[in-house]
Every structure is written in C-alpha cells, then in structure tokens.
Amino acid sequence: MDDFAYTRPDRPQVAVALAARPGARFVAGGTDLLNLMKDGAEHHDHLIDINALPLSGLRKVEGRIEIGALSRMSDVAAHPAVREGLPVLSQALLAGASPQVRNMASMGGNLLQRTRCWYFRDAAMPCNKRSPGSGCPAIKGQNRRHAIVGGSEHCIAVHPSDLAVALTALGATVHTLSPRGARSIPMAGFYLSPGNTPHQETVLGQGELITRIDVPVTPLARGSRYVKLRERATFEFALVSVAALVRTQGGVVREAGLAFGGIAPRPWRPAAVEEALVGRPLDAAAIKAAGAALVRDAVPREHNAFKVALVQRALAEALGEFGGSR
Amino acid sequence: MSASVVGRAVSRVEGVAKVTGAARYAADTEVTGVTHAVLVKSTIARGRVTGIDTAKATAAPGVLGVFTHQNMPRLTVPGPQTMFLKGFLPVQDGEIRYSGQPVAIVVAGTLEQARYAATLVKPAYDAETPQVSLAANMDLAYLPEPHPMSGPPVYTRGDVAAGLESADVKVAAEYSTPLQHHNAMEPTAMVAAWDGDRLTVHASTQGVGDLQRSLMAAFGLPGESVRVVCPYLGGGFGGKALSWPEPILVAAVARQVRRPVKLVLTRADSYTASGHRAETRHSLQVGATRDGRLTAIDHTLTQQVSRTDELMFNNPGQTRVIYACPNVRTTQRAVRLDLPIANFTRSPEASGGHALESALDELAYALNMDPVELRLRNWSATNQETGHPHGSNHLRECYRRGAQRFGWARRDPRPGSMRDRDGLIGWGMATAAHASGGVPGAGADLVIKEDGTARIRSATQDVGTGTYTVMTQIGADVLGLPLRGVEFALGDSAFPRSVVAAASTTVPSVGEAVVRAATQGRDRLIALAVADSKSPLHGLDPKRVAARDGHLFDTERPSRRIAHREVMRRHGKPIEVVVSPAAFTPRRFSVGAYFAEVHVDPGIGRIRLRRVVGVFDPGRVINPKTARSQVIGGAIWCVGIALTEHTLVDPYLGRVLTPNLSGYLLPVNADVPDIEVDFIDRPDPSSPALGARGFGEVPSTGLTAAIGNAVYHATGVRVRDLPITPEKVIKS
User: Fold this and answer.
1) Which residue numbers delimit the FAD-binding PCMH-type domain (chain A) (predicted)?
2) What is the CATH number of the domain that holds A225?
3) What CATH code is assigned to B280-437+586-729?
4) From the centroid of its chain, how far is CA B365?
5) What dotted CATH number matches B32-125+185-235+240-273?
6) What tens digit of pLDDT does each residue of B646-702 get?
7) Number of separate domains in chain A
8) Residue A304, in any domain of the structure
9) Cross-chain residue pair B726–A316, CB shorter than 8 Å
10) Which of A215, A260, B144, B573 could pair with B310 in a Cys bridge, judged by C-beta atoms 3.0 to 4.6 Å apart?
11) Is A234 in contact with B670 (Cβ distance < 8 A)?
12) What whole-number distance in Å separates Cα of residue A283 and Cα of residue B188?
C-alpha cells in the first residue's frame, strides 16, 4: 500500500473542500476501500475520514425516512421504522456481508463499494474498470458471476450491493454535497452503465459526498421483500437477487417496483418487467411474461448462462410471497 | 480404582494456553532485531523473467535487501526424502512455472516498509501461453513413474474385463472434483535466525524433522546446526505437510542481511505457496450380480500435476481395499499443467472415495437395492489389496448403528418422493474410509523426574488435532500417572526424530513410540521398587506389580503400594529412556458410515444440508472429545467439497481468481447442521497404540458422496461434477 495523508474533518463543507483535489477519497467504514488499497486495486494519496461528520441517524418525516449516509448497515436494518415500513431494505441489508462488516460499513459507502469481479480485484490482471483500455478478461474467461444484462464489450462486472438493489426498487433519492453545492439524485439515475467508460460507475463528481438517502414510505413498500440466491447460506454476494414491491387489489397487480441484483453492472430495474405485471392477475402467465421481459436482451456468456433461468426463478419466488404461483 | 485416562473425554491440555494467547505460533515468535520479508510473485504463468528493476525498491525506506535470481545465493534443491517435493527452488533462475511463483524477496526493517518496497520491484517477462485447464488437456494424460507416495500407477487384481462381462448390472460414470485449497486458519509463517553457522527456524510446519532435513540439504549443514521449532499450528490439512521453499529462501536472505527475518504468507500467497487439491476426473465402471455382489470395478483417475513434479495425491485406495470384489483395476493418470504443485489436502482419498461411493449409489438404483444393503453384501473382513485381515473392522456395525440413529428405514428410495412444505428432501449415505496405520520413523524419549512426574518428548506436531492431549493420555495410562503428572513436548527437531503429522498416522506411529517409552520407564520404576529393601513391594516378582493413580501396587494385594514420587525420591536421580523408531508398523484402515439429509428447493436451486449422522470405527477411541472434533471438522470439510468450494483459475492467464475467503467459499456456520457422531470404540488387537488406529482423515471422506446421493434422492438429478451448485440442480 502506498503512503497516504489522513484527515478527519468534523464539518461536511471542510470535508468536500479537502476532497475536491484528485487523489483524495472519503473513507467511512473502510470495509471495502482498505482492501482495495492493500491489494493495489485503488490508489489514493489522501483519505478523508468522514466518521466525525454529523451524518448518522434516521429520521421519519411525512412520507419518507431520511437515512444519514454514515448510518451503519446494522443500525438501519434493525430500526423499527425500516423493519415495518421498508422490509425490503432491512432484508437486503441483513442479506449482505457479515454482522462484523455490517457494524462497520456505512450506508453511503455501501452504495460506492466496488465490484467483486476477480479481474478487477487483482491488480496484476487487465481490467478496463481499474486500468482503462487494458481489456476485459472476463468476457472470455471465468465469468460465472458476471452480468447477463447491461454490460458492454468493455466490462461485464456486476455491482455487488444488495442495498442499492433495494433502494432502486424503493425509488430512493441520494442527497449529496460538493464544493459546487448540494443536489439530489434519484437512484434510477445514480449509477452509470459501463459502455466504454466502465471506470465511471456513478454520476458523483470528485469530492462529492453522499450525505443522506431518502426513502419513500408508501403502502407499496410496506409489503416488500428481498430474495437473494447464493451458494452458501450467508456471507456471500448474490448469484441473483430481487427486490420486490407489489401491491395487488382483488388479485390484480395495481403497482409494482422490481429491481434485480447479481445480473448487471448496476441495480437493474427494467420498466418492461413491471409493465408485464401491472393491471394483470398475478398468475403463472403474468410471472412468466415478466421473467421473459427481464431477460429479453440478456447476453449470457460461457459460464453465466444459468443466471438467465435463475433470475426468473428468483422473480417467481419473490412474487410467490404476494400470492403469485411459481 | 479410577478409570483409565485413555478413553476419557479430556479437554485439550494446551487449551488454556491457546485461548489466553499464551500459545506462541510461528508468527508470534519474538526474536531480537527481527526484520520482515515480503514475496514478489510472478504475474505470468509460463515464460521467463527477462529482467528485474530493483532500483526503486532498494532505495525505499528501511529496505535491507532485494533478492532476485540474479543476486540470490545458490542453494541446493533438497531431495524428496526430506518431503521437499516441489522439485525446484524459486528465485534461483529466471524460469516461471506458474503464476504466483516468487521472483523476488524484499527484506526491510518493518513489515510496512517491506510491503511497500515489494510494490516497487518491477520484473519484465517473456510470457508464453500457459496450459492450466484439465478439461482442455485431457489428451495429454500419461502414466507417471511409480512413487511410494503416489500409490500404484496401475493396480490390477483378477480379470476386470471378464468381471464386467459377467455382471448382470453395470454402471459407468465420470465424476470430477475441482481445484481446492487448504485454507488453514493460521497462515504459514516463519522466522529464521542465524547464530554463526547455526540456524534456527520457527515455522508453521506439520513436519519439523522434514523441514530441518530440507534446510540441512539446502545449506549443506549437519543436523546439529539446524533446529526447527513449531509448538503450535493453527491447522494444516496437508498444506503445511511438505517442506516448502519459503523457509529455505528466508533463511538464505537472513544470512545475507545478517539479521533474523520473518515471513508471514498472506492469504493470497497461500493459494500458490502451499499446494492444493488437484482438479480430478474419475472414470468408473462397476459391475455386479443381480443380488448385488460386485464382480468388477475399473477406476481411472486423471489429475493435474505441475511442470516440476508428478506426484499423485488422489490415490483411489478405497477402491482397492474396502469391498469384496475379485476383479479390480485402478489407474492413475497425470496431466502436466502450468500450475503450482498439488499435494495432499484433507483427505487425499476424498475425491476417489467420492467417485466410488457415488457410483455405488448409482449401482444401488440400477439394482433396485438399498444402498446400505449393497454395501453390507460386499463387506470384506480382509484388506482386499493386501489380502491380509484387517486388525479389526466393524464397518457393518457402523452401517447398522448409523442407519438406526438416522431413521434410514423410513426412507422411500424413489427420487423426489420425500418432501415437506418448502421443497424436496433427500437422504443419502456412503462409506468413509482411509488408511490409518502407522509409518516407521517415530521415536520418543522419556524422563521420570525425582518428583515422580514424567516428561515425554517427540519431534512430532499438533496440527490442532489433539496430539498434545492424546499422547499425554497414553503416557499417563502406561505410567500409571494422573494426566497432570505427565508433560508431552513436541514440535522441536531437537527432540527424538518423528514423522510428519499427516495421513492419519500420528496416533499409531507416535503413540506406539510413547507406549514403548512409557512401558520401559514404568518397568524401570518397578524394578527400582522391588529391589529396594525399604519398599513395600520389595522382593515381588515385577510382573505382579502394576501402576495406577501415581502409585505402583501389588496386583494381588492392591493395598500394598508405593507412590512413584517415593520410589524416585529414594532413587535420587531421574530415569531416562530413549526409544528409537519402530522398524515396522502395520498397514491399517479406519472406516465409518455417513448418513445425510438435504433439503432442496429445485425451483431456485437452493440446497441445504439438514442433518448428518456419522458412526466410525477407529479402533479404541483415546479421547472421545478430540475424536468427535475430528469428525465435526472432517464433516465440514466435506460440506465445502460437496457444495461450495472451488478455486477458479483464469484459463488464459493462469492466475488463481479466488485467492481470498471472499471469493473462495468455505462453508459458514449457517451451512453446517447438527452433526451426530458415534463411535464403535472397540480396540484393534493389532494396534501398537493401546488399540487405537489413526483417524484424522477418515471423517473427511464419504460425506461428499452421501450429500450427492441425497441430492439425487431429493431431485432425481445426479450431479457428477463438484461442487453441487444451484445451477446444476434447478429443474429446467
């Protein structure tokens, strides 16, 4: 690991001013960043520790819950308002990492964790995300855990966050602060597709700090759930996952929010899946149609073709909870 | 009269030291003036180093030396008799034989300085395209030269073609297991310090004696000049059983920088430095009569070997030994690939046993016969390979007791027939078996001190299995002392020569030496007592005298007794015994039966192990507590092998892609159900160690097949390629 400067400001304005310089990076829980730096996958010469900033805690206001970006995963998952009003968020958080990691990792940092693509994580390998232009060995190599939708010929790495999938389905909004001021970004527009710039993963600029995440509390969100499929029972990233919000009335789907993890370089919420369900009875035909819409543009590779079927099964499993038959 | 300390569920004698941190592992060794080494590893899998730029690294703060093949002292490659099996020493020439091979060693005053400077070393390579895929290179398979560690390349008894021809029912199938790693909790560590021409190495090794001999060979030093110390190991599983290059390289650079040097391998290092279970393919043909008697087994193994060795550590021993079958052939084929050397991985017979026990399940279905019944019909009282009787073999009782505890009689054998609200239930079973006799080469010494307590020493190791504890129990039992009256010391090459702690050999090998040393010591104590005119035992025939609870006593009048302490006080000097290694130890097998229940949701491919019952026959159980821990550990190994573990290698770049515990999926607690363990616990009359046989590897065989067989029973899908991951069972 290279030497780096370390600063621990206690005011957000100071933090973002310090971070405006290239080479600077925020650190909160450090559960991903320190590994990346030790493994040589990322290099930063100035770490700005944001743990002293007043950005922790949850606040219930009319129609939404505001979650401070420094809130720890475990605290948010256990919060009664989240468990009751946003079960998919609590479930997605608890499905991620281990209790030790969840006690350290922050909500904002979770959204910015880097892909688990083994080519990205090994600094000795080519990787367009880590070293633009060096190539993507995953396309022809070991791509069992890689994307089947949304990738490009430059990158098929999968975004690893369960939280981001849940927030995408919930239609959350990310609030940020930078030297240019504050802004809010809907989750749907927070992540970028890899295209030919896979190193650019979000719309955040240099030194832009996530301060808060606002999550709408709606009747739709109340019955939500998260389904995560993986090999071992816990402490593993998703093979595929589904965040499902469905409201039915008289057996007919009135409203739906469905986002998917483990299959794309960003949380994946194709409108066609929800369109295939809304206004129809939640029966096998509708579920099948939604699944087909989900994988219509899939580009499976040598080792990940199983995800095409598995993600449809996960969708059916998730919808089963709302009275759908799989 | 108190019961013997042998057979008692004694807690680990070193347990308090371990949980309080008093136990010093290799990396904890405190040596004045120690410096730190970090390895620079090749990023290509095949080719040559054309140059290494070390200028920046050499100039970095705190750096004491940067060593490459250009400035490294020339070292002698130790021979295989020292368990140095890799065939070459890295950092001696520019050739690259696998990705991750050390190409430079950086030594600095602090670990951080060494780690940073290592990033500044810039090797240049002339890279060639590596071959790393077994599947893509099966046409390169060949029969390697015979080697005592590999088992026979080709073994035949009877006429396999005729046996298959005469079979009423035949099964032919191919099973494969992936590359897997040991992942001991303690990363391999070493500290090398020179005092003139005398070298001391503290190292995590399962063989202090072997490592000492490999260092002697590398540096041309006599035995008295090299000492290897390893009092504690945080697991090894075979990964620390060979003599590896790193302690040699570290000793060499310590001599150059004239300071002690410490190297602790990173987790990532351990995926190329300490061997692995080779990727294997097993092709089986099994024939049987209509009533389930085996007529032939033809078992061909093909596995990866490296460019510099061709040792086979997946020997299908169970196929040759366990079942009564007149016509058997086993064949071991190798494919050379640009990967590190493979070695034994708990258990080396896991993959071959998995293939055999899976094929027998397929045969049971083909015969429409219960798989327990099929195995009972083919039980053999003799070792089928040697033709000699087993010392004892209670395998049939393992099946019966296991089946009863599991409730096997309630099994509906039809696939998919058993279910609950959430999915399918499958029950499967398999035999566990592993060689478990002693190996020659274990010695010990004993001192009975003037206070009547004893100290026994042997240059063996405790991998975490319980060697300290069971040897203390054996010594105390023979000497008639309470546990606290015996100290067992190990892990020092200065102690009497012993054997590598591997392959389930420690109890029958070291235990034998401890029994002999303690017996001689006790006999000398008795001789003193009967010769002493002031002793209550004076004049007795020594055969009438026994030892128990710290006393010698007249077996015909037990109240006539004298304390060990008293005999020794009057003797006034210690009794010293040295026993040299036994020339012969019997070959043995320990066996058991595993029963497993899985729950499968075939819609989403979710497989969860719900229940395991294992019943074992290891001869006499010296310590039910440590033996049970061996079973639990072995069973968890099987859960990983069956369901989650596989090391991925990039097919073009030849690099390990999963060199960490995030990418390499070990089972977590939530994957491990209750494991019910039982022992037959009857002494093997042929055992030289109080009726016990070796046992450690046995429980890490068989359960993989029991799980696979259970998945088939649940789903009707026979997954012949491990691990059994969701995509292999989701119904189409």
Assistant:
1) 1-220
2) 3.30.390.50
3) 3.30.365.10
4) 33
5) 3.90.1170.50
6) 999 999 999 999 999 999 999 999 999 999 999 999 999 999 999 999 999 999 999
7) 2
8) yes
9) no
10) B144
11) yes
12) 56
